[in-house]
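Worked example

This section walks through a single chain of length 237. The input is the sequence exactly as stored; nothing has been trimmed or padded.
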Amino acid sequence: MVAVCVSAAPVHAQNPATFLEAGDTLYLKRSDNPVAVRQAVERWTEAAEASDAPAEAFERIARARMFQARFADDEKQRAGYLASAEEAAEKALKADSKRAGGHYWSAAARWESIKRKPAMKVMQSLEDLRGRLEAAKKIDPSYEFAGPDRLLGVIAFQSPVISYPAADEHLAAAVKLAPTYSPNLLARARLEAKLERAAKAEELARRILALTAAPGFEKELSADQNSAKEFLPSTKP
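Given that input, the structure is written out below as tokens.
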């Protein structure tokens, strides 16, 4: 009788959680290692391929692509990352529409793609954008540090259809939910500046400048702090 020895595959080979964790570890290095972002996306792609419920992996991919779009070298590269982010978000939605992430990231990617387009092009997408963000907010208002309210507020005063009361309401809610998250404070500062409330914008800017970055957020906070400086009084003679 011949004994048959079957070699077991590595435990992590088809374990989505292991791939997710590996991607998360790599993504923490994003501020000073752009290659780590690409490697994180590769791990999360493997997680999606190994999972029967890949929405969480696709949400992470969408988030990473948005990070890459923000710090892209040129407009063509930025557009490519935004398209990839929207594609990943749509896959997340298809996998599980009861999670906030797919709704939020699809809206975030679309907004970044169209916000500089002609007004008519932007207006054609506003209803859909708001619908996705309201869906995300209903599922989890705290998602991505109050992302649904933050983006609803930004759209309310930066789109062609301006509503300062709506912007004020949504950004107040975002700051209340995540008061030390620099994008919330920066969006609020921009609204205050738009409303010619310079003292309030300066106060928010100084709050941003006093923040210390959580691990992985160093590059994003640094960029927000540089933007916040525009709301400080000029030091020129």
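What to look for: Residues 1-12 have pLDDT under 50 and may be disordered.
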